Each structure stands twice: as C-alpha cells, then as structure tokens.
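Job type: complex structure
Entries:
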Amino acid sequence: MSNATRTPKMRSANTYWLSNLVGQGAINLFLLALSLACLLPFVVILAASFSTENSIVNQGYSLLPKDFNTLAYQYLLVDSAQVLQSYLVSVTITTIGAPLGLLIMALVAYAMTRKHFQYRKAVAFYIFFTMLFSGGLVPSYILITQYLQLKDTLAVLIVPSLVVGGWVLILRTYFRDLPEELLDAARIDGSGEWRTFFQIVVPLSTPGLATVGLFSMLMYWNDWFTSLLYIEKTALFPIQYLLYTIVNNMDFLDLLSQQAGVRVDPPRIPARMAMVVLAIGPILLAYPFVQRYFVRGIRVGSLKE
Amino acid sequence: MATAVNTSTVRPSKATDRLQRHPRLQRWIRNNGAPLMMCLPAILLLFVFAYLPMFGVIIAFKEYRFDAGILGSEWIGLTNFKFLFGTDIAWRITRNTLLLNFLFIITGTVMNILVALLMNEVQGTLRARFYQSAMFLPYFISWVVVGYFVYAFLNVDQGILNQFLARFGIDAIAWYRKPDYWPTILVITSLWKGVGYGSLLYLAIMLGISPEYYEAAKIDGATKIQQILYITLPHLIPVVIILTMFSIAGIFRSDFGLFFNVTRNQPTLYPTTDVIDTFVYRALRQMNDLGMSAAAGVYQSVVGFVLVLVANWIVRRIDPDRALF
Amino acid sequence: MSDPKMARISRRNFLKWTGTALAASGLAACAPAAPQAQQGAATTGAAATDALVYYYGTRANFKDVAVVQEAVSKFLMDKIGVGIQLNPLDWSTYSDKMQLKNAASEKYDMAFTANWTNDYYNNVKNGTLLDITDSLQKLAPTLWKDVNPGAWDSARVQKKVYAAINQQTWTANFGPRCPKQYADKYGLDWDKINKLEDMEPFWEAVKNGEPADVKAIGCDDKGSGAIWGVYYKAGVIGGSSFGVINLDDKDAKAMPDWEFQPWVDTLKMVKKWNDAGYYGKEPWPAADFAAKERSAKYASHFHNNKPGVEAEMKSITSFDWTAKILAKNYLENGPAATMTGVNKQTTNADACIKYFEQVNTDKDLYNMLCYGIENKHWVWKDKEKGVIGLPDGVTAENSPYNPNSDWMFGNQFNAYYTDPSKVGAWEATRKLNEEATPSPVVGFVFDQTPVKTELAQIQAISEEYKTLGTGFFDLDQALPEYTKRAKDSGADKVIEEINKQLDSWRASK
C-alpha cells in the first residue's frame, strides 16, 4: 500500500525533483484558488445566518456577521424536540437506504459485467429506460398511497429510491476496469459468483463503491421531495423537509398577514442561510470517514499479494 | 424456492440428476443463474417503482379529469402537445436548451477531469482532503441561495463586480438586462456547484488504475504528460462515454433550479436563458393542466430516447464493449 | 444458501425494527392527530362518520393541534354528532399536496380551497368538489343569509355553489401607503390626493430630498408595486388569466388588455414616473422587499389598504404609516379567496354543511379553531371589546397553537381582535364589502378547455411583460411586440371563445 502512494517521491534525479516542485506548486495554487472560491461563499453563509436581514439587504454580504444575532436559528429551532426527531429520521433513512441501495446496485452492476450472462444487455436497457421515462407524479402517487399503502411510512422514504439507474451503469463501468484474469482465476478455483463478488470485487472497487455510496447518502440526506409527496405526519419529517417547510412557509406569511390580525415577520434571508448550515452539519461530520477512500484508495496492486 | 437455491450454487458437481439429463438447461443455469439472482432485487424494485407508474404517461394523450381517473378520462390525441410548438418561443427554448446543455456537457467534462487529474497528483493527504471538502461545499447550497449570491455579485447599484469594475473606470453594467453574458454566467455557476461532485466520478477511476502501468511507463522514460495522455485518460473513456450518454438522454431537460433562481427569472434574460422547463413552468403555472405537463415530459423523454439510440448505435459500431446496452 | 433471500428477509426485518424503534421513541408522539378516522374510512366506510377529515393550511407545525382537535370535537359532538380530524398542511406545500390528493381521488371530507391555492375552479372543473347549493340553504340557513347574494354569485360555477364562503375583506381597497416620516417631511396631504398623478410633486420631492437608496415608489421584480386593474376599472374574468372587461359597463365584453385604453394610458404614466427616477435603477428582488420595507427604503407603495392597515404595518416595521384608498369599490372574485369545500368522496356531506353553519355562527367554536383554548393559548385583554392577547411567557414565535389565519376557518367578522387598535375594523370591512359594486361578470367562470393550447402560450408570453407595470420596459417597443406575439399565439381566438361563453351565460341568467 505504501509503495503505491509514495511512488512520485521516489524519483532520484535532481531535474525530476525540481520539475516536481514547480508542478506541485502550480497544482496546489490552482486547487487552492478553486477551493477558496467554494469555501468563501460558505463562510459568507455562516456569517449571514448570524446577521440581521436588514443589514444583509442594505449593506450586502460579508465574511463576518453584521449586527450579530441568533434570531434565524431561534426561528428554525423553536421546536427543538421536532428538530431532533427530524435529524433522527434523516439519519435512519440515510444509514439504511445508502448501504442497502449500494448493495443492490452493486450486485446488478456486477452481474452485467459477466460475459457469460446472456441477458446483460437486456438488463442494461431495462435499467437505462427508467432514466428516460417516468410516469409522472399522479400515477406514482396513486400507486404508492392506494395500492402499496406506503403513505406516512419510513419505507416510502427509503425503498422507492434504492435503485438509481444511472449509478448502476456507472458502477458497471467501474467493475469492468477490474482485471478479468483475476475474476476468471477465481472462477476456475471454484469460487461462486456470490463469493467472488463479496471477496474479490468489493474490496478491489472501494473508490467506485465509496463514490456511489456517498452519492446515495447525499441523495437520501437531501431528499425533501419524497416527503412533500408522501409524508404528512410531522414525526416522520426528515430534517431537510422540516427546514424546507419552515423556510418556505415564510414566503406565505405576507400573504397570510394581509388577511389576518398579527403580522409575523421572520428573518427570511438569514433563515435560508441557517438552513444550509443546519442541513449540512451532520454530513460534514460523516464526510471524513468516506473521504479516506478517495484520497488514499486501496489500490489494485497492493491487494494482489 | 428450491430452484433458487440450486441456481445460486454454481458447482456442477452438486447438480441434481434431473438437471444432468438436460445439459442445455444445466449450462443455462450455470451461466445465468447467479447473475439473474443478483439482478433480481433491482429488477423488482424498478418494476414496481418505475415501470408500474409508467403506464400513467397515457395522461399526456388525455383530457385528464380527477373524478374520471387515468383510465376513464377522454382521449384527445396529441392536443396536449400543441402548446410546445408553433410560437417564436418554441424555437428559442429548443435552441437555448440544446446549446446550453451542450456547453454544460463540454465544460463540465473538461473541468471535472482536470480537477480529478490534479487531485490525483496532490502530495500530502491533508491538503488533498482540504481541497476535496472545500470543493464539495457548493453542492449543499440550494439554488435559491446561489441566486442571492449571484445577485449580490451582479446587481447594478451595490454589486461587487460593478464596484470592482468602477476601480478601472468602467461604468456600471446592468447585468440582469444583458442576456449575452448569461450563458457564461450560467456555465460558471454550474461548474462551481458541480465540480466537487463531478470530479469524484473520475477520481474514483484514477485511484483504481494499477500503479504498475505508471511504473512501466516511467522505466520507458515517459513524462508526466505522456503518462496522463496514454494511461490515465484512456481509462477514463468508458466513464466519459456513459456520462455523455446520460447527458444526451437528458438533452431536452434542464436543471430548473439553476435557470429559475440564478437568473432570478428575469424576462430580460429569456433570449438566452429560457429553456423548455422554464417555459413549461410559466405556461402551466396557472392552468394546472396535468395532461399538458405530462405531454411536455413525454416530449423531452422521446427526444432523449431517440438521440441515445443513435449515440449508442454509433458507439457500438466503434467498440461494442463500450455501448450502453 | 440463497443470499438474496437472506438479504430480503433481513431488509424487511430491519425496516420493521427501525420503524418500531422510531415509533416507540417518545419523540414520535409529537405527531398531531391520530389518523383513526382515515383508517376507519378505508376499511368500513360507516365508521368514517365519527370525525370529519379536514385539510387546511398552516404556517407552522403546532404542537397543540391535537388538544384543539379534542376540544373542537367535543363541542361538535354535542351539537351535530360528529367529531373532527384536523389535518393542517404547511402552506408552502398545501397546494401541491391537495392537487395530488384530488388528482388521485383521495378520500377526505373538507378542505380549504381558493383562487390562489388548491385552486377552486380547477377543483370544480375536475369534479373534486360537491355541489352544495341546495344543502347550504337547507342545513346552513344562517350562513346562507349572512353572506350577501352577490358574494355567493362570485363562488358560482355554472350557477352552482361548490364551497362555503368565509367572510373577510373582499374588496381591493387599492391605493398608496407611505411611511409617515416621509409623508410628514414632504407635506403629503391626502385631501389633495384623488388620483395617483396627484402624488407626483411628493415623489419629486422625495427623489430630490432623500439619498438614492430611498425610492419614491417601492416595487419588486415579481410585479408587486404595479398598479392594480381595479384602479383603471379593468375587471378580471374568472377562470382566465388573459383578457379584461370594463368594470363600469354592464354589458362588458372581454378584450385583450392592449385594446383596453385605460391600461395603455396607465403604462404610459408609469413609464413617465420610471423615467423620472421614482422607481430607481432596478426593481428590488422579491426576497429583499420585506427588509427594504422595514428599513423605510421607499416613500410609497401601492397595495390593499384595508381598514386597520396602518396599525398592522406599524406592528411589523415599528414606525408609523399612513394610507389612502384611491380605487372605486368593486366586488370581483374576492369571496373566492377564502372558502371551504366538501370533497365528492365524502360519505358525510350533511355533517360538513352543518359544521359550516356552526363554525360561521358560533363565536366560541370559531375562535377555538383560530386561537386555541382560553387561558392556555390566549387570554382576554378587554372582553367587552373582544380583544385578546397571548398568555404571559408565550410569544407569537413559541406559542404551541397560533395559526394566525382566522380567515381560513370561517367568518372573520366573528374573530376576536388581537390588537386594541384594530377594534372596529370588522364592522368597517363588512361595510366596504356590502357597499361594493358587483363586477358585471361576477359568477361567470370561463371554461378554458377549448383554447388551452393558446392560453398556455399566451400565459408564457405575457409573463415576459409583467414588469411593464413598473415601467422597466421601453414601452414603444415592448407593447407592439407583446401584442403581436400574443396575437400570433391565438389571442383573438381566446377572446372570441370567452365572449361566446359570456354571451350564453348572460342569456341563461
């Protein structure tokens, strides 16, 4: 393993060392600039979430909060029990949905790479077709609420999105990169497809699996639309949907207060910023655990012996 | 269930007598049994949640009434599709959708590969982790908030860009009234938001390339650039092909959030930013006609489908292994 | 062993397990309204008579919905023999959710429906709502008599009423409102303002006297701040987003807006104001408008200045306001803005109508829905005048029950006042409603099916010109362009169809 990651450092000639230094400098400069372009807006979001709306609108955004206050957070977190419950729901659907979906998708993707499997193209078409055509909201709604009776269940937040056609096909390309001889050798050794999959394919494909796994995690974590369609019980609101409703309800308050007595005037823009912060937090904590597969992936060569 | 157990056990020595009397069936099971079982969960899930509701596309050909239901509503042929054609807008949205998607495909692919290549070369785990985490952040920022920032950057009075230009004696530009700039602005925004996510797909491939290739190349005296050209990039081709296929399938669709929020839905920008999805939103917002919105979806799908079939046919002619299906 | 089988079993168990775990955790208990009635309805049908399933909008998830539901149910049980199941849905998702339910013919009893959310006309057209014209007169006689006939007309589709009207402000009350500081500083005298042009000296003074970031006329990029049709007597046509009628013409015919000279004149006037710099360089983004308003960044804004508006504006901006109504008082589709409809799928239609009668006549019941339980969610401040307030330690933000939507549940004129300065506003509003001149097309609803292609295209085109109303367009170029493009998309055909339907509606009256 260490061999693989250190190869660039093993160059001995002086010119190599120098060009490497210059190259590294350029690379780091570019990536640093790009990273800052991505990081600074987030700092601005953080600052804005602690600013007053008046200061943002009249003086613009800044890297430090103006008129520091926590009104936006108070507004979003007023029902703390509900917020905790919603985090729990989100964590549950993400930790069940992502690994389960990854397993199901990896299995079908692997099957499609087996040359002796005569229906592999048909399956690929079957999967790809779902990326193109969908029946639309109403038929899905009727199916899920009336025939499957999944409205207001945890299952509806997980099961329908377990398989994402595009990711299956991406996984297939990753698996195709595995050395064919290795898999054939395993077959000759009498290893069944299941064993080959779990003992050889999975360990050799960690970067690809981690990528799709991460995407799947993010999909479950960020999904508010499924809840909009199928969830009415607040106990089953995932955090993103809870925040979505709170923040978007604000746009209706003007309309409501034209009719009703008291006007409620929430910090609209800071609350939208705070929503980003609140929704991103837990994912940022989980990210480093997934990330090690991208920075120092377990390489094919290192596992061969 | 008995057959299921048998099929998943690929050891010929354990096959039953009955099977041995049917060698063709036996071979079929040996080749297809386990793979089919592996496909089964995904096939079933997609059948229920994707294929069953798909019959609902017939709404596009009906005057849908809630109380009559999908089957009971009256057939009206292609009437629901008519609003998509025959105006000067039809040409504009088709051109913008195709052109912008084309721009997104090219710039996105180049940028994501470039960043993945550079990430792959970074020495020092800490730095690599920092870059990667930072570049992922924009993914979490909703288009609504991105729209706020773009406005803060571009508004005519207090916009950061205009203030910057003023230092060089350049007069304030009313960006939201200058449609010509907007394809560029949309491309930059879209690249910025997608680079962390998109480059991962390529990085994952690069991390899987066996170091032996590079070691051998080094011994042959290949430069870094040559290694990238002859080892790394060829490995990326299958992913590029597949992602391009996905983009072609969705060539008539657009990221509504990007087009609606970043342009702040300003009519002055429509000449270059109005796409099929924003047009359909505008046209049907008040009418709420389910048949017509289904028709728009079918139109987008059918065009994507035809184009993908063509693209797939071309790829298969060149290299059958790389075709999608 | 077969692995997928294992995987399937364990998956199912796992789901079941986590579901139970979540349900068992005490937190899950904060769900409102156990859906017992829904289950009953799904299985037997007869059991559904226990509680009326009622959907409506809410601005937040209030913990005490279940408490209020119990109290309201108990009250209703005594009076009409059924309970109620309150199903508040967030306003931000209400329309989408209800349209899906209706499109799927989902079973429920009553729902809030209006011309701005969960579209009433669309629901009627699609057969979601029950015709209650006769049953209202029979089972809700007090409600029927209390609402004036012109208002019932405005809820009619093909002569039939499909929803109960909640009384509230129905008229447009259009006019300018100003932060008092600017009105005082530049000597704005309402007595001398009889039309908008009379404001011009004031705007000119503001423009010259205030820094550039204070606009003489405040507007946003969604068209808020444009002059309303009612000011230049352009009436809306129910069920159509295109075409106007002359409000003062009894036999008015529909015409495209560009043929309606008062509209064109208004655009020219607005363009003049914009060129004079009263609107600033760009309209504000809609998202910024509230903050601009709170920081007094405009000197005037056109809006609905209903009775009590000054106090209301002060309560959010904490500075004083002054306002005037400058439009004639018309009754258009205002009543259709707040209604409750009965779902065709209900098995308990009569109970729904009886409920309408109760909630619109019984102050206790109505205010329980609006404000919750006395001493728990609200306390008397001045019982004689009907003013209430929040209990000690409860704020508008942390109250466990504070929907702040009295107009949604029933007759707003029965609501307690939440601010002493608003005492008397209901009587004033009722008077405005009753004095209003009905639009010549009240009760006409256009069936757009024959021209839906044209209408969709025109809709997409006219949205491109929505900022015409705030003068940010070159009028000489934009107006002919708009006219030509709309005509190319079949504007004439749409107008012709509207007039055809209008004629047959008049003939059958």
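Summary: The CA atoms of residues 89 and 97 of chain C lie 8 Å apart. The domain at 172-328+447-509 of chain C is CATH 3.40.190.10 (D-Maltodextrin-Binding Protein; domain 2).
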